[in-house]
């Protein structure tokens, strides 16, 4: 794309808003040098963002140093909110977030989507959301983000396949859009993609532009950051590393193939390695195995080591393919990490090329089970961050946010 | 990055030059609408590029249609050249290219780097290059690109590891820089990365921004395009998909690991599957197997099918991970493609998720054995494309390019 003046103005607003949203408060002089613009232009851009209730400016209290007092620009976390929704295999969550990624409040409830099917699951989620948001919230919500354990077509939010939910071609985006009655943009993303996004923007991969998020769920979800952006692929389905072939003569996977990585790792694999048949509450059984392994019980230790070894084997392929700066373990793997760190590295040293792994860090995620909820909030903020002029401007006389109109502008990309 | 006016001017020049370099001739009105700038500004930008001998403008011959005659902007392929060098396992090549990717001439010679070691190999390459370029070429060369079958640290062009060359930590970039005596920028890249770049920019993946190039050599090289850019990873070593684990209990790989993808595909694997011990000329043996397989000879067919099946198995992992729009088979795999297309798809249908493969195309490469040489030329042009002001401007009175200074400005990124 070329650059004309209208687009440049919008891009500069976007740059500033994204910077204070992701990095935190910035002094005007920081912004001046980052953008290579003069102080007057920066001042004008900041005032435009202020007039849309997106940022606020504070004069720094005197530091005792000479020179002009500096202004610090920070997000207003109260004026514009997003609603984040999430569907996992055994729970669902709703959350409300302000600019800067600040959680207003969230709620998680148990669910059984495989039992009740997609229509009832989505109805439960929408019911929980409607109960969760107040009339005051409603007026401030500028976008909705939804995370789901499945392959999502980003353009319309259809879940093409959720192997562990039993879903095929579920129009989740459209159902949320019509069911919520909010006149705002709704975006849907894959659970692990959104977990990876959250860990990259504010969590364990923060500041590392090439990162792999590997989340242990029933199976294994992957969210991959390339040059600071989620890897989408040609049609938005990238990141399905749980279905990498690691053991071609191995076990049958829920996807229909044989020897997928997730047949050897993830909750199901851990239970199987421990000789436990999944009963009514597999997550409780997983917890018991983790506790027993931590206290040295041999069968539990062996099961954990089986998963750790295969985690390292499969990871080697993607360390060689992506040369990431960090691998973040989420979900079950985040909890496993202290138990399997050694064995994972043993396999990486055996199988990943030195150049590809020598500066690699492996870390547990910051957000645990809520990673995708935080990521869904980021997804929901994205249209506003890309074009801050979507937020309505108010006149200089109106101090509050009461006069704002809703934004219903952005097409889901 | 923010946007100031100096950078915007440079970015607009870069946009136009890159467009005519990659896409081909553009009318002024195309550029006007692409850039969203007015005709006067476009005219001024084009004149700046003309003054640097980068483009030339032609008035289109009257089409009989009403309206102003349109000006067409095209690259000048004669004024600025790049030198491309390449080191494979059994040959090396030199080439001279003009803007627009046009080949001036190239030469490939047999070599045996494993036999003679890195110093002698590089000395041979430099000797061939010095013999190849004339004094007239020398004055017009603005950059050098080098492709090599190994893991390259992009910042300084050190080959960290060339498993199939037997190289470790060879300062190829510095040796080419000092040995050529050209006061220009030298960039080094991985063979398969550069092959992928060439096939993306002008070959079988042209116009498809998410693509995987899989090249059959002694082993398997990968070059991955994400959103129109080569995947580099945190330190430039990404794309080593030949060392993905596909068969953990399989064969020992040249990298030291067990069961790497390239142990089951590539020339060595094909020879082994055919029961042939690599003698003095493995490439001739490979050709014999391909011919025998094409004519239905059972052992040769079985060997080709073995490679095809494992090609499909390993590829499934990366189709799931990257959701590419196209997979391009280069090198040996380009020649195998007609023989193994069915079997590759059979494995993909078994192992890759429907959503990840349903819009996928698989194609043989356009450039065959020369793909990396074409890619090295693109690597060499990159600094100039990113900042066309690196080419010296001449006064309007000087029509030729004789007055140009050399550019020695750009640090290797």
In words, what does this structure look like?
The structure is a homodimer of 413-residue chains. By secondary structure, chain A is of the alpha/beta class. The first copy, chain A, is 42% helix and 21% strand. In chain A, strands 6-5-4-7-11 form a five-stranded mixed beta sheet, sandwiched between helices. A five-stranded mixed beta sheet of chain A has the order 14-13-12-15-16, sandwiched between helices. In chain A, strands 1-3-2 form a three-stranded antiparallel beta sheet. The two termini of chain A are 17 Å apart.
Sum this structure up briefly.
The structure is a homodimer of 413-residue chains. Chain A contains 13 helices and 16 strands. By secondary structure, chain A is of the alpha/beta class.
Provide tags for this entry.
homodimer, 413 residues, alpha/beta, 5-stranded mixed sheet, 42% helix, disordered C terminus
Strand content of chain A: 15-25%
| Major beta sheet, strand line-up of chain A | 6-5-4-7-11
Radius of gyration of chain A from the CA trace? Answer: 23 Å
> Average pLDDT of chain A, to the nearest integer?
91
Could you give the order of the helices and strands of chain A? HEHHEEEEEHHEEEEHEHEEEHHHEHHEH
CA-CA gap between termini of chain A: 17 Å
**Assembly category:** homodimer
Query: What is the makeup of the main sheet of chain A?
Result: 5 strands, mixed
- Uncertain stretches of 5 or more adjacent residues of chain A: 396-413
Class by alpha and beta content of chain A? alpha/beta
Fraction of residues in H or I helices of chain A: 40-55%
Largest chain interface and its two residue counts? A-B, 68 and 67 residues
Q: How many extended strands of chain A?
A: 16
Overall shape of chain A: globular
